[in-house]
Amino acid sequence: MTNNFTPLTCDSMQQQLTFKEQQDLLEILRLLVTDSNISPNHFLVEQIAEFLTCLKHESVFEKEPASFYQEILENFFNAEKNHTNKVVKELDLHLTDIQLRQLTEIIICENYPVLATQQVELLFSLLYKLTRKIAWYTGLQQSDFYQKYPNFTHHIKFLAIRIITSQIDKSAIASDPDIYFHMQKKYPNSFKFAQDLRRFITEKYNFDCSNSEISFLTLHLEQVKKAPATN
Questions:
Q1: What architecture is domain 11-113?
Q2: Domain 121-226: which CATH class?
Q3: pLDDT band for position 172 (50/70/90)?
Q4: If we measure between CA atoms, which residue out of 218, 217, 122 comes closest to residue 161?
Q5: pLDDT (mean) for 128-155
Q6: H helices of the chain, where?
Q7: ∠ at Cα 28 (25, 32), nearest 5°?
Q8: Is 77 helix (H, G, I), strand (E, B) or coil?
């Protein structure tokens, strides 16, 4: 183990796991911390310990994910996917696809601490719905949207996280109404579509996007429409 890694322990881990499994847990934590922004903490220890306990007892994991799950994982959380695969390979863990997904979701929630693991599936569903609507409006294939517009993809990702976790958009505090009405006047079609997205989000997720968010969405939509081959 690296010299700067300080392992954490917890009572539940010691009670539920064998010595070998505790060593596996510490090695997983070390690998997660290496080359990442993840810091070892008691919540992470509990999550990994629970995961290993389920493996030991062959507990029933969640059902198979939706058909779009892998698409969203690879295009929005590819770093977490690769990090999980690295851990599994180095420890020679033999996981089913569903078990691998659960471990990946733990890592996603460590990188985005506002998220709870039970929110990940809902987040993926929202990301799929938003990108499908945007691809339809801009006339793009969803795969082209992911590949050609990483800045817009990044924007949608963090918007979706705010929606799922009900985080207030801090930019709304300093929102400039002049920009909002300028976007409405200059780009009426994209502005209307952004407002349609706002309505969809409010009705389905009880979250109201700020005027700043609508202005930003309108601008990104116009950039895609005018220059579909570039970001």
A1: Orthogonal Bundle (1.10)
A2: mainly alpha
A3: low
A4: 122
A5: 92
A6: 11-16, 19-33, 42-56, 69-76, 78-91, 97-111, 120-138, 142-148, 150-165, 177-186, 188-205, 211-226
A7: 140
A8: coil
How far from the centroid of its chain's Cα atoms is residue 43's Cα? 18
pLDDT digits (tens, 9 = 90+) for 65-107: 678 999 999 999 999 999 899 888 888 888 888 888 988 999 9
On whether the pTM is more than 0.85, the answer is no
Q: Is 89 helix (H, G, I), strand (E, B) or coil?
A: helix
Q: Calculate the average pLDDT of the chain.
A: 82
Delimit the domains of the chain by residue range.
11-113, 121-226
Question: Which letter, b or e, does each residue of 72-95 get, where b requires 16 or more Cβ atoms within 10 Å of its Cβ?
Answer: bbebbbeebbebbeebbeeeebee
